From TrEMBL, chain A:
One of its GO terms (biological process) is DNA-templated transcription initiation. This is RNA polymerase subunit sigma. It comes from Dyella monticola. Residues 23-83 form the RNA polymerase sigma-70 region domain. GO terms for molecular function: DNA binding; sigma factor activity. InterPro entries: RNA_pol_sigma-70-like (IPR039425), RNA_pol_sigma-70_dom (IPR014284), RNA_pol_sigma70_r2 (IPR007627), RNA_pol_sigma70_r4_t2 (IPR013249), RNA_pol_sigma_r2 (IPR013325), RNA_pol_sigma_r3/r4-like (IPR013324), WH-like_DNA-bd_sf (IPR036388). Residues 118-170 form the RNA polymerase sigma factor 70 region 4 type domain. Pfam families: Sigma70_r2, Sigma70_r4_2. Belongs to the sigma-70 factor family. ECF subfamily.
TrEMBL record, chain B:
InterPro entries: Anti_sigma_zinc_sf (IPR041916), Znf_put (IPR027383). The chain crosses the membrane at residues 88-110. It comes from Dyella monticola. Residues 3-37 form the Putative zinc-finger domain. It comes from the Bacteria. Keywords: Membrane, Transmembrane, Transmembrane helix. It holds the Pfam family zf-HC2. This is Anti-sigma factor. The keyword Membrane applies.
Amino acid sequence: MPSDFRPPASTPRRTHFEVCVLPYLDAAYNLARWLTRDDADAQDVVQEAMLRAFRYFDSFRGGDARVWLLAIVRNTFYSLRAKGASDDAHESFDDDTHGLIDEQLSPEARVLLAVDVRALHAALGQLPHPLREAIVLRELEECSYKEIASITGQKIGTVMSRLARARERLKTELSRSSTEACRHDV
Amino acid sequence: MMCDDARLLLHAYLDNELDASQSVAMEHHLRHCSACAAQHADFLQLRAAFTQASLYRRAPDALRVQWSFPEPTSAANAAPARTRRAPIALSMAAGFAAALLITLPAFYALHRHDNANLTVEEAISGHIRSMQPQHLMDVISTDQHTVKPWFAGKLDFSPRVKDLANAGFPLVGGRLDALDGHDVAALIYRRRLHVINLYQWPVSSETAAVSVSQQRGYTVIQWTDEHMRFVAISDVEESQLQQFVQLFRNDAVSPLMR
């Protein structure tokens, strides 16, 4: 990873890049951090994504720079991950097998949700990548379905069903951890 | 609408992605189906949990520094600002561009003495400083009638304080700060996960046009109302900060809201 990279000296192109793209550095890092679940890895992904963005900046034809950058961050993450070929690199995800579960949030889970951000943090980290990226883009970046579809290269219908599944899973996970917490107390 | 349809559409409803007729159908269904209404309540709770700030991971400073320019802060460092105008000049006819290039230094010289740029710089620094742990607020309150009196005796003016919670910009507190050589009142508002700092101090001029600028990923909006200078800064989208400023100003002139 070229972590010692310094962007080139000030040029009009670089200034333009700074104005268009740099405002979304936090968004880029947030997405990378949630995909990698690790500070150092997230920095590597963002660093590489920013390099790619800078390299391809000439091909950016206006439009929404945030969507453009987040799509690059996402692609960078998946390409670096495939290269690293870690144990869960071939996590497959089938949109059809992850059905909706008919379960309501227990009163304990509701309380947990309100007071313990760590539980949500952990549950979010446990989601499969396709669900995690959808919910992070929606809830933390406040992207529209259209924007998420454009970033992830999915159809809007797929985005909607992934968000539904992500939320159902989080609910189930939080209900489970609240039950465990209760048992622990007893 | 049947529950099976509602299960999926509920999320689009939650995300404000349904068209008007589907929204109405969903509202109708939620009024009459307690199971789906309970689901809806659960997901609203989940959404509320997502607004807790610690879930959003901001880029570390090292990364930001690496990708930022040093900003032109002195006259000696005027070159980057000039290059920012270069693409515009290039797009014009050659003769026109030449003429424009000749006038650019003069244009810049005029602007250099305008302390608006300096204020933007200081506002951004102040905003970033305020984001450090424990620096954001001196008085923590969502009540304008607590925040406003808190400033009494600490400043030689009484700042305007409005609560815009109904419009999605809740007031969360206030703090003393210094900007542009003045002691200023800083009000802190939130927009979802984002912080908005609103600085104000008295000036002698009556009114000045709203000016919007963007630097280092922050939007800064400045204006003057009734001998009071205001500077709003945040990393929210520009349109949202515009909306905030509009609301604050509208509120300020409405006698009913006083």
